[in-house]
Each structure stands twice: as C-alpha cells, then as structure tokens.
Amino acid sequence: RGGKEDSRGALVVLEGLDRCGKTTQSTRLVKHLESLGYSTELWRYPDRSTSVGQMISSYLSNKSQLDDHTIHLLFSANRWEKRSLMESKLKSGTTLVVDRYSYSGVAFSSAKGLDIEWCKAPEIGLLAPDVVVYLDIPPEKAAERGGYGGERYEQLEFQKKVGQRYQDLCSANWKIIDACSTMEDVEKQLQEIALDCVKTCQEGKPLSCLWS
Ligand code: Z5A
C-alpha cells in the first residue's frame, strides 16, 4: 500500500518488563496495520520453535540449568538464526512487529551482573530497529497484573533491576508509552508511532545494524 514499488517494511520493536502488555499490544498493532493494507507480521523473541529456542524455553521454565554467559549467547543465536529471513521480509515490503529483541537480551543478562558491553557484543550486526517502543510500567504494578507464571525471571526484585538496565539502554529512537494507561490509550499511541515509522521507511530510510 502506498509508497514506492520497492519500498521496505519497518522493524518495530516492543520492549518492557514482564506483564507490561507487549503481547496484547503487538497483536493489536499487527491487526491494525493489516487492516490498513500494510503487509505485517508478528514476531517474538525468544522464538521457541527452533532447536535453540527449545533450549531457551527449557531454561526459562527451570527444566535445565545453564551458565549466565551461555544462555545469553543462546538468546543472541536465536536472533541470528532469523536475521536473514528478517532482512528479506523487510526488503520485500513486510513490516515486522517484534515482541522483545536485543534490548531484552542486554537488559536481562546485565541485570544478573554480566558486563553490559560484553552483553552487547554478540548483537552487533543484527538489524537495528526503526523504532523501539518501551511500554513503561513500575515493576510493582506489573506484578499486580495477575500471576507471574513461575518462569525464571518472573520475580519482583529482579524485574526492578531489569527496569534500571532498560533506562541505561534508552536512546534517541526509543518512544516511551505509559503502560498503566488503558489498553485502548496504549493501542492508539502505539498506532501513531508505528504508522509514522512505516511511512518513514517507505520513503526510503535505509536499513542499519546494531549497535547504534
Ligand atoms: N529474555 C532474555 O532474558 N533475553 C532475551 O534476549 C529475550 C528474552 C528475547 C521471555 O519471556 C523471557 O525471556 C523474559 C525475558 C527473557 N522474561 N521475563 N520476564 P516472554 O517474552 O515469553 O514473556 P514476557 O515478555 O515476560 O511476556 P508476558 O508475561 O506474556 O507479558 P506481556 O506480553 O508484556 O504482557 P501481556 O501478556 O500482553 O499482558 C499481561 C497481562 O496484563 C494480561 O493479563 C493483560 O490482559 C494485562 N494487560 C495488558 N495491558 C494492560 C493494560 N493497559 N491495563 C491493564 N491490564 C493490562
């Protein structure tokens, strides 16, 4: 729809603490963009469908133990194994709405005490998002949203540390939305940000790579 024949899709990333509403909002955003005629797909990391993803899933549900560095590299590998597909989708004009990306990788691992630059290093060369939307919620409020499901990182004290790491990572292409607003308010703000981004990409904004 619109744009030039060869215009590319946008890479829209949603980030935030557990229970901030990423799943709800990314699903709604994809439906909205599709309803406007934009080719759009919903992606999420970890992608638990691959063999690397299954190792991650087993770790998150406490069925296996892994050294902190090892699991960090697996999360990164899980993004690398989808990188070329990501690039071809974007170049063919499909917009990707991605629920968690490299920032989750760095925020969660560095919150455990790993060096932040070490955490960023394996992400270098992955595609850089055109926009990162951070759904901002105090950890206490997120915890009130019913049932942390018992996965490894679903603990208040840890989520507080992750929130601080996200603040350290926040940069110019981040947009912050108050995730305590109603679902409809969040949805509207997200739609505006995403549409603006999709149009900028259609107009010829080049793809770039992390870490920038
Ligand atoms: N991780 C990592 O360490 N390294 C990495 O590289 C990556 C990830 C990629 C994967 O979790 C874990 O892996 C994650 C980070 C780590 N650990 N933690 N924590 P996941 O992605 O499978 O799960 P999650 O991201 O934590 O998602 P979630 O629990 O499903 O939460 P969510 O998607 O952000 O929220 P939601 O499901 O849309 O909403 C949660 C509830 O709140 C639900 O009942 C909604 O109806 C409700 N809700 C949503 N919005 C609102 C508003 N606005 N008001 C009121 N209630 C709301």
TrEMBL record:
Coiled coil: none
GO CC field: cytosol; mitochondrion; nucleus
Kinase among keywords: yes
GO molecular function: ATP binding; dTMP kinase activity; nucleoside diphosphate kinase activity
Domain of life: Eukaryota
Key word Protease present: no
UniProt pathway annotation: Pyrimidine metabolism; dTTP biosynthesis
Protein name stated in the entry: Thymidylate kinase
Family, per entry: Belongs to the thymidylate kinase family.
Domain Thymidylate kinase-like: 14-189
Signal peptide annotation: none
UniProt-listed Enzyme Commission number(s): 2.7.4.9
Gene Ontology biological process terms, A to Z: dTDP biosynthetic process; dTTP biosynthetic process; dUDP biosynthetic process
Range within the parent protein: 51 to 262 of 263
Organism phylogeny: Eukaryota, Viridiplantae, Streptophyta, Embryophyta, Tracheophyta
Keyword tags: ATP-binding, Kinase, Nucleotide biosynthesis, Nucleotide-binding, Transferase
